[in-house]
Amino acid sequence: MKVNFTFVLVMFCFIASAQKIIVKNNVWYTDLNRALNVAESVYHLDLSNQNLTEIPAPIGRLKNLESLVLSNNQIKTIGASLKKLKHLVAIELNNNQISHLDMHSFEGSKESLEELYIRENQITGLRIGLNDFTRIDILDLGQNKIEEVHSGIQLPNLKWLMLDDNLLKEVPSFALKAKKIKTLNLNGNLIKQFNLAEISNRVERIDIGDNPIDQLVLRSDYKKLETLILDWINLSNFDFNTLPRKLEVLSLERCQLTEVPQAIHGLKKLNQLSLMHNEIEMLDLELQSFPKIKKCWVGGNPLDEVSIEFIASQPSLFNLNH
Questions:
Q1: Burial of 234 per CB tally in 10 Å (0-12, 13-18, 19+)
Q2: Is the dihedral of CA 71, 74, 77, 83 positive or negative?
Q3: Are the CB atoms for 231 and 254 separated by under 8 Å?
Q4: Is the pLDDT at 187 greater than 50, yes or no?
Q5: For 4, what's the count of Cα atoms within 13 Å in the CB-facing half-sphere?
Q6: What percent of the chain has pLDDT over 70?
Q7: Taking the CA of residue 87 as centre, how many other CA atoms within 13 Å lie in the half-sphere pointing to its CB?
Q8: DSSP state of 7
Q9: pLDDT tens column, 131-168
Q10: Is this model's pTM higher than 0.85 or not?
Q11: DSSP secondary structure, 109-138, as one string
Q12: Is 198-322 CATH 3.80.10.10?
């Protein structure tokens, strides 16, 4: 994963917004034995960072459990411990060693599961079993090894999809079918073609940076799209007139640009812009064209003296950090 300042900033917003389980709970139990003593009144359990190698079977006795966090352990398989739980809404298994996502492990929660977080594991593929969980609206499987995705998967209520840092060669078909999608993160895959017209026009945030894209098609009429990350894509010959006109955050880091695209001046709602690590010598930005601009990152460019002086005159707006 290639990390840059703007990517971290925007992804913080993505993840903070997605983690609903953190803000809609009451009492969290962090000791399984204590939770078992009052099993029927336990709704939220956090057993992260406890060196677990498997999911403890007694968790299945917490019949009213809604939120379960098992992140930062050494769990290799999900197993059958959670099968009988019927009220799970959110499950987090980030940073484990899971290689196979068997949705049958959650079959008791088919009618309740809304959020599934299994980042930083070893998952290689997604199977049709996901279709049984129609209420899922957040699916975070970033930083796995996903290469194969069943073409028949459909998640009609999906709003947040994070598949960054996997081995995908194309946009998964279920992402194209998701009519309610708001956030789509495909950063750091092997995707060569991306056509915005194939994505629901309800989408608000897209990150397709760090992909070997040689065919990029955007549309200026996507009115809900606020954030667009195109880092590490060669855009030296791209037609920027197709940029969605309502963008508020735009990142064009390491895109082999030699000048500031003039079409950017038509983005009247833009408040954050990153042009870091390109080949721009003259920073030709007409600030009056950006009435809402708050921050512009331009570090890592061979800027001329005039541009440096211009930046120095607007210290609160420009950032030269690399």
A1: middle
A2: negative
A3: yes
A4: yes
A5: 26
A6: 92
A7: 15
A8: H
A9: 999 999 999 999 999 999 999 999 999 999 999 999 99
A10: yes
A11: GTTT--EEE--SS---EE-GGGGG-TT--E
A12: yes
Residue 170 predicted with pLDDT over 70: yes
* 25-191 placed in CATH 3.80.10.10: yes
Note the residue count of the chain: 322
- pLDDT band at 2, cuts 50/70/90? low
> Could you tell me how far CA 121 lies from the centroid of its own chain?
16
Rounded alpha-carbon distances, angstroms, from residue 107 to 113, 141, 286: 10, 19, 56
What span, in angstroms and rounded, lies between the C-alpha atoms of 37 and 24? 24
Q: Are 71 and 98 in contact (CB under 8 A)?
A: no
What pLDDT score was predicted for residue 236? 96
Beta bridge partners of 29: 45
For residues 88 and 65, the answer to whether their CB atoms sit within 8 Å is yes
The position carrying tokens 């709003």 is 159
Q: What letter would DSSP give residue 49?
A: T
Side-chain half-sphere of 9: how many Cα atoms within 13 Å?
Answer: 15
**Given the DSSP bridges, would you call strands 125-126 and 148-149 parallel, antiparallel or unpaired?**
parallel
The number of beta carbons lying within 10 Å of the beta carbon of residue 306 is: 12
Q: What is the CA radius of gyration of the chain?
A: 22
Answer for the pair 251, 235: CB distance below 8 angstroms, yes or no.
no
Task: Say which residue the tokens 């959020």 belong to.
Answer: 115
Extents of the domains making up the chain: 25-191, 198-322
pLDDT tens digit string along 9-58?
444 444 444 455 444 458 999 999 999 999 999 999 999 999 999 999 99
Amino acid 321: pLDDT:
85
**Sequence-distant contacts of 211-218: CB under 8 A, at least 24 apart:** 211/186, 211/187, 217/242, 218/242, 218/243, 218/244
As given in the structure block, the two tokens for residue 58 are 């007694």
Q: Which of 142, 98, 87 is nearest to 119 (CA)?
A: 142
Paired with 319 in beta bridges are 297
